[in-house]
Design brief:
Ferritin, 79% helix, 0% strand, mainly alpha, single chain
């Protein structure tokens, strides 16, 4: 059994809430996109919502394996209205940066606490966040290039769908599927 200090337990429980918020955030975005007839974006955000839920579940499992009962706190209401898809993806980037900072803070705490198991566990999240931010940066770049002309939403939606399929294929290859 791994000994998790009270500080690490609290920080991991907070990260569970962060990942739960992120999952709900993406779910809300998916259905905002549905209202906008952006099917490719909807699919992207639904996959993201499920991925964030999986991130949350990994922390639950880690804590449980460590002999600690994880706590589920209330998750604040996520934003549900956006003026356009550009604003939505800017908020997504801000959200991902916030999660990255939270992971880095948690890793710093694990280092302070000399908790090598938690440090090792969190390395996966560090790598994952680097990838997440890179994907969103790519999307923001493509949105900027496409612009905001009359047909831009169509092209943005198709581009997001292509990126989503690339991410899915990459994940399948990494998992050996």
């Amino acid at each position: 059994m791994i000994d998790l200090s009270p500080k690490i337990q609290e920080a991991l429980n907070n990260q569970i809430a962060n990942e739960g918020f992120a999952s709900n955030f993406y779910l809300a975005l998916a259905y905002w996109c549905d209202d906008q007839a952006l099917e490719g974006c909807k699919k992207f955000f639904l996959r993201q919502a499920e991925e964030e839920r999986m991130h949350m579940m990994k922390i639950y499992e880690y804590m449980s394996e460590s002999g600690v009962h994880p706590k589920t706190s209330a998750i604040p209401q996520v934003p549900i209205e956006y003026s356009n898809i550009q604003e939505a993806f800017k908020k997504v980037f801000d959200q991902e940066r916030s999660v990255t900072q939270s992971i880095h803070n948690l890793l710093s705490l694990a280092m302070e606490e000399n908790d090598y198991n938690t440090q090792q566990f969190l390395q996966w999240y560090v790598d994952e966040q680097r990838e997440e931010e890179a994907v969103i940066r790519t999307i923001l770049d493509r949105i900027r290039i496409i612009g905001d002309g009359a047909q831009s939403l169509y092209y943005i939606d198709k581009e997001i769908e292509k990126i989503n399929m690339t991410v899915i294929a990459s994940a399948s290859n990494q998992n050996g599927e």
